[in-house]
Amino acid sequence: MPNNNKIAFITCVNNEDVYSTCLDRINNLFIPYNYEIEIIPIRDSPNICNSYNKAIQQSDAKYKVYLHQDTLIVYINFISSILEIFIKNPDIGMLGVIGCKKIPTNGIWWDSIQKVGRIIESSSGNLKLINYNPSKPIEYVEAVDGLIMITQYDTEWREDLFSGCHFYDISQCIEFKRNNYKIAIPMQSTVWCIHDSGVANLDKYHTYKNIFLEEYVNLI
């Protein structure tokens, strides 16, 4: 049985200095009374999906926060906010901070004309605010970016298809939909996360895009 009072923070780690900053932010979060957090760094793992599946096997936490090592949670009431949403909305399986209401036919969420969310990120080389903040407390979406994916139910990550760092996140969103769970992005009165990734590494990007489209073309 899952522990309904535990939140696990799960990260695939290959840079200890970067992860240390991520961990400092997690440890600074307000933890509601009667809840506990669990820190799960996965090291020396072949890929993200494999790492996240390992974490599912080793943690009994009902709530799991899958985040990149270069994602900084800067909103101190992050835990309280996600718990409030999940408890009030048992049909929501996953939350994110940025994504899209409709996945485009090319599978690339940021090409959507219906982007949703708010974040500070550095994919252009400099930190900047990206703001598609919804006007209502919760916006239902089809996809969220993998910089942070927050769940209250477990669904296996498709390591049979994705052995890299691209499209595993959009795949997981569709797998949640297959299991009849909704995905949502909350309105952020203040930015919840900074994603200081630098310019994106697009190695094998198109390879994984083709894998994604072949598997899910009839579902987007």
TrEMBL record:
It holds the Pfam family Glyco_tranf_2_5. Coiled coil: none annotated. It comes from the Bacteria. Residues 8-216 form the Streptomycin biosynthesis protein StrF domain. This is Streptomycin biosynthesis protein StrF domain-containing protein.
